[in-house]
Amino acid sequence: MVFTLTGALSVHKMLLAFALGVKIVEEGQSLGVHIRSVIFFAASSPVGVAIGVAVQLSEFNPATKKLVEGLIQAVATGTFLYIAFVEIVTPELNKPDLSPLLKVFFLALGYGVMCCVQLIPEGNEDIIPIPNGTVPIPLS
After folding, report:
1. What stretches of 11-130 adopt beta strand conformation (E)?
2. What are phi and psi of 6, to 5 degrees?
3. What global pTM score does this model have?
4. Interatomic CA distance for residues 69 and 57, integer angstroms
5. Can you point out the beta strands (E) in the chain?
6. pLDDT, tens digit only, all 140 positions of the chain
7. Which of 8, 80, 97, 136 has the fewest CB atoms within 10 Å around its CB?
């Protein structure tokens, strides 16, 4: 699971970095604004991972832990949906470069591909094999 999350975070961050870079170039703001934006963007993932690890390793009772996890996921999902639909999809649909129907088709295709990716089995990443040993070491 660690490798899956690292890969997903890396690919997601790479795509967001490209989108942020394009937006920064389009805006025409001062260099200081650009630098602050990039620093905030670069620091957000490690801070988010640290918060997630802290919640996972916390000594809360299971109900409180699930509540905190749910609240964090709700905030992240709401932020993602807002940015996706208000900041990205709507302006792209309003651009006259391609037919809006074609854009909606590719949007639906992208969602379909991401849904299919969820069906791919992850495998067992909880055990690290030892080359000359007989006892596996659990990661957790």
Report:
1. 127-128
2. -65, -45
3. 0.57
4. 12
5. 127-128, 137-138
6. 667 777 888 888 888 888 888 888 888 888 888 889 889 988 988 898 888 888 888 888 889 999 999 999 999 899 888 988 888 888 888 888 988 899 999 999 999 999 998 888 776 655 565 566 555 555 55
7. 97
